[in-house]
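Please check the following for our workbook:

***
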Amino acid sequence: MEQTEVKLLQEITQLFADLNVATYGRERANGRFLPPDANKFYYSTMRLYKAIDELVEKYQPAYITESDYRFIYDSQRPLLLELNVLRDKNKLQGDYLTWKLEKYLSKIESLFFCVLSYCKNNF
């Protein structure tokens, strides 16, 4: 099933929201707290890279320059490897995990700035 560009951009916006939840956790309706989750962060990041690849391959958007895309593509392997190691560490929890994931979240936000700013301005 082929997605339209708008649906891909909406998915990318949701993936950034998922990354924030995976980094900081969130309160649930029943008064409980959903803790930070390195595993969800890893899978959301992996899907984000796939969505960007699909977006560039099918639609060649003007807001993603060729140099931006190359920079994103080159960062994929080392970033996902680091996140894979981080998610396998069982002792990381709570504030320490949030502190570690914040670094990766800011790195991802700077990598995908061209797409993120376009999504924020249009959705």
The chain has a mean pLDDT of 90. The longest strand covers residues 26-27. Strands lie at 26-27, 33-34. The chain has five helices and two strands.
